[in-house]
Design a protein that fits this description.
About 90% of the residues lie in helices and about 0% in strands. The protein is mainly alpha-helical and about 110 residues long. Helix 1 runs antiparallel to helix 2 and helix 2 runs antiparallel to helix 3. It has a domain of about 80 residues. The N and C termini lie far apart (about 85 Å).
């Protein structure tokens, strides 16, 4: 078996990134006093999954490759859904702000 120290380091780095997501989720939940999954959880999942996938490909391990490869789609989909929700919320906030300004102008014009 090829035990190249660089690949071992890459494998451990990927595992560290992947494991860090649980610490991030735990700390965010403790801070909120409820169970939540912050965006950083999905970013660390993606970074760790990609790094571990590279390591799995180097090791030529089809089981490891399939497991990490499939996970990447889930992580990307969750980030996509979060991004879509943030854009929708920003549009809603802008519409509400615009409506409040229109209401203030109408009120001012009516009071004058």
């Amino acid at each position: 078996m090829d035990v190249n120290p660089w690949w071992v380091a890459i494998g451990f780095a990927g595992q560290a990134l992947f494991s860090a997501r649980f610490i991030i989720q735990w700390l965010a939940s403790e801070k909120a006093r409820r169970s939540i999954v912050p965006r950083a959880f999905w970013w660390f999942s993606l970074a760790g999954g990609m790094t571990l996938l590279a390591y799995a490909i180097h090791r030529e391990d089809p089981v490891f490759i399939a497991g990490q490869g499939a996970g990447l789609f889930i992580y990307l989909r969750n980030l996509s859904l979060i991004n879509r929700d943030r854009k929708t919320q920003q549009e809603t906030d802008q519409q509400e702000t615009s409506q409040h300004k229109d209401d203030a102008v109408q009120h001012k014009d009516g009071a004058a």
